What does this fold into?
Amino acid sequence: MDTHLNVMSFWFVLIAPFVGSFLGLVAVRLPGGQPVVAGRSKCPSCHVTLRILDLIPVVGWLVLRGRCHACAARISRLYPAIELAALAVAAWAATQTSGVVLAASCFLGWALLVLAAIDLEHFLLPDILTLPLIPAGLAVTFVVNQGATTNHLIGAVVGFAVLIAVNAAYRQVRGHDGLGLGDAKLFAGAGAWVGWTGLPSVMLLGAASALLVALIGAIRGKGLAADQKIGFGAYLGLGLWIVWMHGPLI
Ligand SMILES: [Zn+2]
It folds into this structure.
């Protein structure tokens, strides 16, 4: 890897926690319909404007010990968690890729992070975050591996169709939806990024990680109801990320 690519990796890793701070705001504000970019950050409890120091990723939260400096209201752990996760995404991508693929990988990983945060909390995958993944994945494919564009276009269509079909079958058996339309749009996005040949691996990794987390929850005494909501989009996103980084399982 030549030097300017190393410098680029360095910058992506450096800005990642700050991107993470923004992703945390999106994850908190978007589901409630609040404007995502609305002036400076305020404490949601006492509305005091946060200080510059408080806004330093992870460090700010640790210095404040997770509480507002004015009213001591708790600040969600989502913020430091998503800041660290955004850093992990950039570092992971920097070990595997460089140049334009690194930039695309960070874009994908950070988008999947905010989707995961929203889906785990609200069981919701907003269109404004899932749908752009489809043209973005196709555009990245066209730029870095033009010959695979058709495979990825088919992937987007097949990904959507398969989850719609699975959901229709589920509805027949159980009488209600098992997967949301958001999951189908996200899976279409997965097809656009890894092609139809990558989709089985995405699904397998997503289902396996969801099952693992559910089992850990059950062991820790939370029980496991048949109709428990799980935010499957978060796990599909993890599957997509692993296949995008390391290729399909087979
Ligand atoms: Zn406060």
